[in-house]
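Contributing new records

If you add data, match the layout below exactly. Sequence lines come first and carry their own label; structure lines follow with theirs. Keep one chain per record. Anything else will be rejected by the validation script.
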Amino acid sequence: VRLGVDFRRHKIIDKTTSMAFRINSGVAYAYGDTQSLPYEKYFFVGGSNSVRAWRPRRLGIGSAPPPLSSTPSTSGLFDYRYEKPGEILLEGSVELRKKLFGFVNGAVFLDAGNVWTFQQAKPADPTEPTTPSWAPQGNTKFFVDTFYKEIAVGTGFGLRLDFSFLVLRVDVGIKVWDPSRPEGER
């Protein structure tokens, strides 16, 4: 069972400026004999239509950090090769849009969101050879009293080339609050 709600609001400020608001949420639950959802029914966060400061589908789960890279040139950095599926989705964005000149528009945005699971993921066991290196470690479960600490925040700006029949969009985002980092370093 999967339920998603997407609310959007567009407010015109003046003839060349507008604000766009979006809230997207969802819940998916596997029932019956099934222990997990089909992969395409999970929710994902990150990318050009989500929290733009993160790579597509790479934000989450909860505050569980991605595994560290083992490549010598990026040793010690997070490895974002693996998608992060969740059963609970909460994300939103606020975007200020301004017509710059001709068919060129600009935008400044603030995005926030994350995905969680109903059950806490089992931590990766380095002594167990069958445990994948990408297994989540840290909190993946949604808790009503602490979920707000695990909402990632990104901001940035972008250009829109509006040809009326086609809009080309280029955004640059930066992480402001990263819940996968240890508390005090987020």
